[in-house]
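Quiz preparation item.
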């Protein structure tokens, strides 16, 4: 009897179920897990960026207050007090002040030489300070009337009493008050600087006798604001609450907007300048379409100087932060390919097994020759 061999049959239904259901489910599970991992990573980095912004803001606050203390100490030098007090011996005359201011504007060197403003002991002291500490770009001293009585270098005008910083420092005319300007272009020094003005007091408890103003080079402040960055595409930026950049201030008062200014203003709704509890992070794209994580924290300077509504924004390119995750993604793709091969092998094996026909018993029956029957003779 011949033996029949059966070729393996594939059960298409089983194959389709195993392949077209198992593999998509595995892929969806992979994408879901990766999505959750990336979201958690973004949250973690967002919190980290906010913490860096908060620490940087505290460093900036400390820098500004430290500079204010330095200027206050300079204002207590005896030569500075003496020159401010001596200037007040001349009664303020509007016509005379105007004439001197016009003469100064036309020929500062000649006017300064005539008045002796740049040649007294206080001016020499201030000039030494500027020459030895390049953070200070200019130091000027006025009397109570706003007339220039000492300066480290020639200024753009003689009368300072009409300047906004002077009127702010003059305050009530009795105690005066220390002021800090926003970063702005200074015409005398031809640079962007931070203006710090303090009243000069000859004796404690008495009305001030003059005002000292220092223009501090903003580059040191911006170096403090920039801080160290762990990655090449990370940046720490000092900005105002209207979205303009402090660190990119240009001559002439032009202000450049932070690339995420619109999103920042949305997050600042209800924010009170100087709120120590305020912190926020979000994702934004720059003009090139590159995605960045942004962490923001406020400076506390607004509590003392309401016009300094500064915030620190720490940005980091999302590509850099998610690079390790994306490397794992490629490894998962390799693993997915291996799993797909295993699933296909299992699908083929099961489909073959379920499609095999029932086993037919192969019985070998031996045929024996018929034995002749022996009939007995009956007697």
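Solution:
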């Amino acid at each position: 009897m011949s033996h029949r061999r059966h070729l393996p049959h594939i059960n298409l239904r089983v194959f389709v179920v195993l392949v077209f259901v198992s593999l998509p489910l595995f892929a969806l599970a992979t994408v879901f897990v990766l999505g959750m991992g990336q979201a958690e990573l973004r949250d973690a980095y967002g919190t980290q960026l906010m913490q860096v912004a908060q620490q940087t803001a505290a460093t900036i606050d400390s820098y500004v207050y430290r500079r204010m203390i330095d200027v206050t100490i300079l204002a207590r030098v005896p030569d500075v007090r003496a020159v401010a007090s001596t200037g007040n011996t001349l009664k303020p005359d509007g016509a005379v002040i105007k004439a001197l201011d016009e003469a100064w504007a036309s020929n500062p060197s000649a006017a300064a030489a005539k008045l002796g403003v740049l040649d007294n002991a206080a001016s020499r002291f201030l000039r030494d300070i500027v020459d030895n500490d390049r953070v200070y770009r200019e130091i000027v001293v006025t009397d109570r009337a706003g007339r220039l009585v000492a300066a480290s270098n020639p200024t753009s005008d003689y009368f300072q009493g009409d300047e906004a910083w002077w009127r702010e420092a003059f305050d009530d005319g009795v105690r005066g008050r220390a002021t800090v300007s926003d970063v702005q272009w200074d015409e005398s020094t031809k640079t962007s600087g931070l203006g710090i003005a303090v009243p000069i007091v000859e004796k404690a408890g008495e009305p001030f006798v003059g005002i000292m103003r220092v223009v501090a080079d903003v580059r040191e402040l911006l170096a403090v604001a920039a801080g160290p960055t762990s990655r090449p595409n990370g940046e720490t930026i000092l900005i105002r609450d209207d979205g303009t950049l402090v660190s990119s201030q240009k001559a002439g008062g032009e202000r450049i907007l932070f690339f995420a200014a619109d999103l920042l203003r949305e997050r600042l709704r209800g924010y009170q300048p100087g709120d120590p509890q305020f912190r926020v992070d979000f994702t934004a794209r720059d003009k090139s379409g590159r995605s960045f994580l942004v962490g923001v924290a406020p400076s506390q300077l607004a509590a003392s100087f309401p016009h300094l509504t500064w915030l620190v924004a720490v940005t980091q390119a999302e590509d850099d932060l998610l690079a390790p995750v994306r490397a794992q993604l490629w490894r998962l793709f390799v693993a997915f390919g291996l799993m797909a091969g295993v699933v296909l092998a299992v699908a083929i094996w099961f489909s073959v097994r379920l499609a095999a026909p029932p086993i037919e018993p192969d019985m070998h029956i031996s045929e024996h020759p018929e034995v002749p029957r022996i009939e007995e003779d009956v007697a």
